[in-house]
Amino acid sequence: MKKLTQLCTGLCLLLSSSSLYAQLNLPADEGLSNRAQSEYAQLSDQMRFDNYKAAKKHLAWLLKNTPELHESIYINGIKVYQQFADDEENPNAQLHQDSVLVLYDLRMKYYDNEKSLIDRKASTAYKYYRTRPEKTEDLFRIFERTYELNGKDVGVNNLATYMDVTRKYNEVKPLGTDEILSRYYRVLDAIDQKEQQGGNGETYEKIRGIATKILLEIVPIDCDFIQKELAPRMQKDPSMAKRIVSLSLSQSCTGRTFFTDAVKLLIKENPDYALLRFLAIKEAEKGNMTEAIKYFNEAINATNDKSKKAQVYYDIAARMSQNNKPEARNYAEKALQTDPEFKKAYKLIGDLYFNSFNDCKEEKSMVSDRAIYWLAYDMYQKSGDQEAMNNAAGQFPTMSDIFTENKEEGKTISIGCWINKSTTIRRRKE
Predict the structure, then answer these.
(1) Is the pLDDT at 196 greater than 90, yes or no?
(2) How far apart, in whole angstroms, are the C-alpha atoms of residue 428 and residue 430?
(3) Please, are residues 369 and 362 in contact by the beta-carbon 8 Å criterion?
(4) Integer angstrom CA distances of residue 106 from 26, 66, 96, 103, 397
(5) Which pLDDT does position 13 carry in this prediction?
(6) Count of H helices and E strands in the chain?
(7) What is the pLDDT of residue 12?
(8) C-alpha torsion 218→220→226→228, nearest 10
């Protein structure tokens, strides 16, 4: 049985080797062809056992004598040289780093796959060259080529690093402000696309923050710079709106008119929940509630997240709480219908009741007038706000008050005014 197993294994290896050799681009010369097959087989064997030092010798022969034999010699070659390039104690580490990148170039040369490989080469180049000032220009050119060929499809590893490479290059060969900004925009465009394709929003927000931080270390951008240099370009170049919004957020320029203008331009193409909510709040602050409600409703339609929808209903309720308590309660209840876990809406309703004492008291019955605090207490309890509950309970009538008016604790009592609710009679703890 053991011999049969060995025979089968050997046969499989033979068939595999025969298939592999059939794929090799062997030279016409028979002697060179036989040597190439032998060297390739030995390289494969050494790689199988992670014997990189021995593999290096066979790799060198293949690269010199049959560079177009098979793409796998470059795949293995990069792996071999990386072992030595990553060894910090190796005195020839930098030489091996350079060799790794040369192997990328040779693979692209012989197998016409620059677009798919240049991105990986850029990541490797950044790893090896970012601390080698003499390689800064080479590193910059590699990243430029990566973005030229891949654009928004560039790899995640080459997003924020592109800004770092731009910074390093700018220290050697200063770039103009527009040249630096254009590279920053490339990074943001790639991040935006990846987010739209379902990427991790938190990860990309972090990368966006790093890229922006590096930009601000290169170019002294502030609110005045945005207003003077960037805002005037919006009408001719609508894509500038997205950049102005991003930079304005980083520099706390959201109170400037140009930021609001940029947001309005941006939502025409992308009805973003956060931006629409921002506009709504701004309009409400100016007293334009009709316009604010319009943007609030658009924000609700721009998201499927029930918590975000509830937040907008709450926003509306909070802004109506002073002048239109019935409508404020209506919107707070909509928030709870949308998301029952949105408990701060209960707190808002409780505040509406608590603050309606002077509006609703009839001064005919102290107990009936104070019934409004029982309702407030109930809402505070649902919100989980113990402090507010204590405040409301402190306004309950005493047992003596209830008895004097010939009322009974625990009985139902109706409240009119704008509230039109029923609750139960309770006494203040003394």
Answers:
(1) no
(2) 6
(3) yes
(4) 18, 12, 15, 5, 89
(5) 40
(6) 23, 2
(7) 43
(8) -120
Q: From CA 328, how far away is CA 289, in angstroms rounded?
A: 13
Among the listed residues 148, 147, 142, 111, the one whose alpha carbon sits nearest the alpha carbon of residue 126? 142
- Average per-residue pLDDT for the chain: 91
Give the span between the Cα atoms of 124 and 119, in whole angstroms: 9
Cβ contact 102:135 at 8 Å: no
Give residue limits of the domains in the chain.
220-270, 271-335, 352-430
62-121 pLDDT tens trace: 999 999 999 999 999 999 999 999 998 889 999 999 999 999 999 999 998 999 899 999
Non-local CB neighbours of 202 within 8 Å, separated by 6+ positions = none
115: exposed, middle or buried (Cβ count in 10 Å: 0-12, 13-18, 19+): middle
* Cα distances (Å, whole numbers) of residue 371 to 360, 365, 393, 403, 415: 10, 10, 11, 15, 7
Please give the Cα distance from 357 to 377 (Å, whole number). 13
Q: Which class in CATH covers the domain with range 271-335?
A: mainly alpha
Q: Mean per-residue pLDDT for 219-240?
A: 90
- The structure tokens listed for 125 are 């180049």
Centre a 10 Å sphere on the Cβ of residue 238 and count the other Cβ atoms it contains: 14
